[in-house]
Amino acid sequence: MAGVSLRHLFKSYGKNSPFVVKDVSLDIEDGEFMVFVGPSGCGKSTTLRMVAGLERVTQGEIYIGGELVNHVPPKKRDIAMVFQNYALYPNMSVFENMAFGLRLRKTEKHLIDTSVRQNARTLEIEHLLGRKPRELSGGQRQRVALGRAIVRHPKVFLMDEPLSNLDARLRVQMRTEIIELHRRLETTMIYVTHDQTEAMTMGTRICIMKDGIIQQVGAPEEVYMRP
Ligand code: ADP
Ligand code: ADP
């Protein structure tokens, strides 16, 4: 079981700062594709970063696969995160970028090699393994970022606006690829976007946030979004 549960989650960035996430409670089922959508600054990234362990929880609980993770460091959580800006290491090759997370976890060398190659093939970037990120297009970089996340077979995928730096055509194509990836890997996906179309086409459920609170949660056909 690798669902994610948020229980009365609050976040403030400083002692005297206002709450930017307020009493957020949500059960994300194992294998679900949950999209957080809402205007810039409504607390989507903050919520996702708390699930990743990149931000401290001010109040409330986060469970991953039934385990309370509030004090579990990011590396020990069964998650992988993909960011908007790819966050690739510029001096490493594509292969090294994809292998990095496995090396960190002291995976055996031949297993790293097999896994990186297999996943690179899936994402059709096998021919790019020797290149540096600067020698890639935006779409190729985003594929490498996805590849780096999937080689570890995490139970939970966290994606923060992964497509917003891509041009419109590529964005539509990558949408389909991420949906396909989710289907094939059978992971739990938590996906943050401010793009309503992206939310409606990708999510099995959508969580609409505003000013730090959850406004609505439901399947795409159940929620109402202002045009
Ligand atoms: P996004 O557009 O994805 O919400 P931003 O550009 O707002 O991202 O934020 C980029 C980085 O800056 C993040 O790490 C975020 O936590 C941080 N950040 C955002 N707002 C503030 C702020 N008011 N003070 C300090 N850091 C911030
Ligand atoms: P969203 O992802 O929906 O754009 P964020 O979670 O990035 O929203 O931001 C929610 C609020 O928290 C915003 O007001 C933002 O300025 C603030 N914020 C985000 N990161 C930081 C940070 N590192 N320090 C201080 N304030 C932050």
UniProtKB/TrEMBL annotation:
<keyword id="KW-0813">Transport</keyword>
<keyword id="KW-0067">ATP-binding</keyword>
<protein>
    <submittedName>
        <fullName>ABC transporter ATP-binding protein</fullName>
    </submittedName>
</protein>
<feature type="domain" description="ABC transporter">
    <location>
        <begin position="4"/>
        <end position="227"/>
    </location>
</feature>
<keyword id="KW-0547">Nucleotide-binding</keyword>
<dbReference type="GO" id="GO:0005524">
    <property type="term" value="F:ATP binding"/>
</dbReference>
